[in-house]
Amino acid sequence: MSETFTPLARSRSSYYCKGSPVHFVMVELFRMEQTGETVVTLTFKNLYSHPIRSFTAHYCCKNRAGQVLGEDDFTYSNVDVRDGQCFGSDDGVFISDEMLGSVEVSLVSVTYDDGVLHSLRRCPPVALPALRPLEKEMRESVRSAMGIRALKYMPEEAPDGWRCACGGFNYNVGRGKYTCSECGADKAALQAAVQAALRQVRPQKPMYDAAQAFGQPHSPQEYGTH
């Protein structure tokens, strides 16, 4: 009998690791309907031009009181993850019978097709801009213009890259990446769609008032007297 998993929560990473060829994308929680337990999955993205063969991350799961329920390394072995592809979302790294309050993740190591193990422990975390949800009217306008339903945030410039309206971070130092590797949105087209939506929701005020528009005279004090 197959297990049924119900989504409980999803949280995107609030940071990236400078210099790392792998980006931590998000953590997701699912409830196993047969047992009521919570399964933790992690999603990562390959930023390098060579395919990943093996990757190890460290996780620390805590309950709502801040107590550690589980902490360990988890290795994704025998994978073939190409540049820009995400991986890990199908693998449960931890199962808990308690409600989780937080999941902390750090990068440990990666092995590419050269067979060499590269440590990622010294890649410093850098905070990403906080995700700002688009207003409802803007969200629908941007989605319609781009044809992508996943768009729901204000796109942001970030250190070493940019954050798409889908929430994805595109690390593009020296590489000029202008297409989101997660949803496929073109950066320039997305910015144009957001600006158009802004103009619809918040139309610019006229430069002149009604009196000026119709040539009605103003009092001398308004222009100054000589």
Molecular structure report:
The structure is a single chain. By secondary structure, the protein is of the alpha+beta class. It is built from four helices and 14 strands. The strands form four sheets. Strands 1, 3, 4, 7 and 8 form a five-stranded antiparallel β-sheet that branches. It has a four-stranded antiparallel β-sheet with strand order 6-5-9-10, with no helix packed on it. The protein is globular, with a radius of gyration of 24 Å.
* SSE order: EEEEEEEEEEEHEEEHHH
Mean pLDDT: 88
Number of helices, counting only DSSP H or I runs of 4 residues or more:
4
CATH topology-level name of the largest domain? Immunoglobulin-like
Largest sheet: 5 strands, antiparallel
Low-confidence stretches: 210-226
- How does the overall form come out from the CA principal axes? globular
CATH architecture of the largest domain: Sandwich
Q: How many E-type strands? A: 14
Distance separating the two termini: 92 Å
Structural class of the helix and strand makeup?
alpha+beta
CATH secondary-structure class of the largest domain: Mainly Beta
Q: What share of the residues does DSSP label as strand, in percent?
A: 35-45%
Overall tally of domains? 2
Radius of gyration over alpha carbons? 24 Å
